[in-house]
Amino acid sequence: MMSMRLRLFLILVLATGTVWASAVLWTRARTEAHVERVLDTRLSEAARMVASLVADNSIDLEAAAGVVEGGGKETTFATAADYEHRLSCQIWSVEGGLLGQSEGAPDGRLSSSSSGFSTSEVDGQAWRVYTAEDPDLGIRVMVADTMAMRENLVGSIITALVLPAGLVLPALVGLIWISLGQGLAPLDRVARVLSSRSASDLTPLPDEHAASEVQPLIEGLNGLMTRVASARESERTFTAFAAHELKTPLSGLKTQAQVAAMSPDPATKDWALVQIQKAVDRTDRMVRQLLDMAAVEAEVKEADEHPGSIASHLAGVVEDLASLARVKGLALHADLKESCVLQCSRPLLLGIAVRNLLENAFAAAPHGSEVALTMQPVEEGRRCAIRVRDHGPGIPADEVALVTRRFVRGRQAQGTGSGLGLAIVDLAVERLGGRLALGPAEGGGLLAEIVLPCLSGRSGQAMPDLQTSLAS
């Protein structure tokens, strides 16, 4: 790909060349007009002078015809070696007879015009002619010069202007190239600084002495490095906590397996097997939550994922967790009324968020209590509110802002969770463009509410209400 320096160089050279060529064309046009005006004035003056001399009887016709040549000698109009200015004169009678002409004048009639300026071709050569008519004497005086002489004169002037400029052009091109190098030097310095850094060096680039055009680039790079450093720190923290949380149940599994293997007491073996089952369950949930977190952070989509009804996706999550609710001795009530078909653009993220909310509710709810899942349109169908309510201890107000952080568990949390559930929910809801609110429920417990934007409002066909109640 063409470098920025070469591209700017070509643009500047092309622009300079275009301006230069335009100036030459304009100068040529103006010079031609000026030269034509000056030479036409000389033609008219010479013709009137000859006519005046003849009228005053100061000179005969033959001598008058040679006046414009300076007594038969060539009169140079300029000092250029490649052209000479020589006027030709003819004196004709009004009846059409040639009365006299200057030396070097063409044999043919210079012009057929009776008076004024004209351009004609005589003996294969173009002439510019001025005709002065004297009716009293019955003569026409014609004074002319060749068009080739005029063109040579204009060409000489243009050459005198363009030739020095052409000699300067290579120097100008070199100065443009050097100037571009100096102008792009701040970018080169930034590139050298970045190329000399190690992959782990994410400190901000200095911008105190940077050019104003380079400062937005440096600010953007510094912002990117800050975000990358934050992401790397979060990844290190996540990896460390995950390793610690996985180590605990795995160590318990190993210990309980050794107890079961070595103990001759059946009751002790049964107790060890129960502890192994709990450790397996905890590890299983930990692994699933880690996978959920990775999927949400990467915004992974299923290959065949399409927008679909929120209620139908929630019904699928309820069906998947029904057996878990029965095992824990809980009543799961799902009231998924939907008088308008609301759709979600990312059902995978929606399922992850709601499943983790329900699992958290299952962990907090006391045995024999109820966990309720409801949904309803809000804001005239533009958004959907999904609520999960349990009868557990709830979350103290001073901990609400903390429990959505990774591996943070409230002081009233039940069981041996990992502290990832609400962090996953919060991240998934953020990816969906919604918001998560946690607060006390009426009558005790926790009420978690997700409010999501919907892709569509009312549908022509209402969806039937989905109600599920799973008792313990």
Automatic annotation (TrEMBL):
Keywords: ATP-binding, Kinase, Membrane, Nucleotide-binding, Phosphoprotein, Transferase, Transmembrane, Transmembrane helix, Two-component regulatory system. GO terms for cellular component: plasma membrane. It catalyses: ATP + protein L-histidine = ADP + protein N-phospho-L-histidine. Pfam families: 2CSK_N, HATPase_c, HisKA. PROSITE patterns: HAMP, HIS_KIN. SUPFAM superfamilies: ATPase domain of HSP90 chaperone/DNA topoisomerase II/histidine kinase, Homodimeric domain of signal transducing histidine kinase. It comes from Rubellimicrobium roseum. It is a multi-pass membrane protein. It comes from the Bacteria. It is found in: Membrane. The chain crosses the membrane at residues 153-180. Residues 181-233 form the HAMP domain. Its main location: membrane. This is histidine kinase. Its EC number is 2.7.13.3. GO terms for molecular function: ATP binding; phosphorelay sensor kinase activity. Signal peptide: none annotated. Residues 241-456 form the Histidine kinase domain. InterPro entries: 2CSK_N, HAMP_dom, HATPase_C_sf, HATPase_dom, His_kinase_dom, HisK_dim/P_dom, HisK_dim/P_sf, Sig_transdc_His_kin-like_C. The keyword Protease does not apply.
